[in-house]
Design brief:
This protein is of the alpha+beta class. It has 13 helices and nine strands. The strands form three sheets. It has a five-stranded mixed β-sheet with strand order 1-4-5-6-7, with helices on both faces. A two-stranded antiparallel ribbon has the order 2-3. A two-stranded antiparallel ribbon has the order 8-9. α10 links the parallel β5 and β6. α6 runs antiparallel to α8. It is globular, with a radius of gyration of 21 Å. Bound molecules: iron/sulfur cluster (SF4).
């Protein structure tokens, strides 16, 4: 498998699509996620970690499916012989139940559900697995790309650190494969389509591929596969679009820098500088609502 460029460790914050997205949705949630562990002494570390690690039914389906796909791809690299679907499904179901039993769910923590229906979660994963294995795209990978599987990049170690516009950024691809003179990037989605958000994430992956493989955007093809709708979408970028994306990374990184007292060591400003969102609908789905919202404001 291909090796990634390595960068020396620095404390400075690195842009990622999810980091900036969180920053825009609610600055306080961003603070809890990225800074509270080492800078908020009002909240017990143990409780903070517990809240940060809460998963949800939707998130966990994505997480399990993601690890199943990773295992399939790694197995194909080791041996291109056909996958025994029945055995795979037994293994995937066990994995799903195991993950669910080990995790604490948002829905249970906040008493929206008494318990999690692990059977339902594993059945959804298996349904998506059938869709993946039956898809034309999967057959295309088996027919065309498997000969070059030694060059596949399957969820590389670390966080996908790269440089965009000279700035630290993280763009961790799930699966990338060179084929001919092109690079294909795959992202299997168990959630809904969110064009703007996903296009930005893919622009990050494309920049990552260009910088690590010495390619231009014209040579990179991103393939999104939506398991729920069982449809794929091909996304590509022109070099100009990637240039303007990299300019936006500069602006977005600088916006986040403004919330630090020391940019290089990434020391945050006070918790109060990170505003709470006024869109209470976002709070309904926030892991930190138990420590963030004043109790008297919780009416039901
Ligand atoms: S509960 Fe609401 S205001 Fe508080 S961190 Fe979460 S989203 Fe932000």
């Amino acid at each position: 498998m291909l090796k990634l460029n390595k960068f020396p460790f620095t404390s400075i914050l690195g842009w990622s699509a999810s980091r900036y997205d969180k920053f825009k949705v609610c600055q306080r949630q961003y603070y809890y996620d990225y800074y509270a562990k080492n800078h908020d002494f009002e909240i017990e570390k143990k409780e903070l970690l517990r809240l940060k690690q809460l998963t949800s039914v939707a998130l966990e389906i994505g997480n399990i499916f993601h690890d199943v796909v990773k295992a399939i791809l790694l197995r194909l690299v080791k041996s291109p012989i056909n996958i025994d679907r029945d055995k795979l499904k037994i293994w995937a179901k066990k994995l799903a139940i195991d993950y669910c039993n080990k995790k604490e769910f948002f829905e249970v923590y906040y008493k929206h559900l008494e318990e999690i229906n692990t059977e339902e979660i594993s059945n959804t994963v298996l349904e998506y697995l059938d869709r993946l294995l039956d898809s034309e795209r999967f057959k295309w990978i088996l027919d065309n790309a498997i000969q070059q599987s030694k060059d596949w990049m399957i969820e590389p170690d670390g966080f996908g650190e790269t440089r965009i516009n000279g700035l630290k950024a993280y763009c961790k691809v799930d699966f990338l494969m060179p084929l001919g003179d092109k690079i294909y990037i795959f992202d299997w989605k168990t959630g809904k389509e969110d064009e703007l958000k996903q296009r930005k994430q893919l622009a990050g992956y494309t920049s990552f591929a260009c910088s690590h493989y010495g390619k231009t955007a014209d040579d990179v093809i991103c393939i999104l596969y939506f398991l729920k709708e069982n449809k794929e979408k091909i996304v590509t970028f022109t070099p100009d679009e990637i240039l303007s994306f990299s300019e936006s990374i500069l602006t977005e990184t600088q916006e986040m820098y403004q919330f630090t007292n020391d940019i290089n060591s990434n020391i945050p400003k006070s918790k109060e500088s990170f505003e709470k969102t006024i869109q209470t609908r976002i709070c309904d789905f926030c892991n930190y609502k138990g420590i963030c919202i004043d109790n008297e404001k919780i009416i039901f």
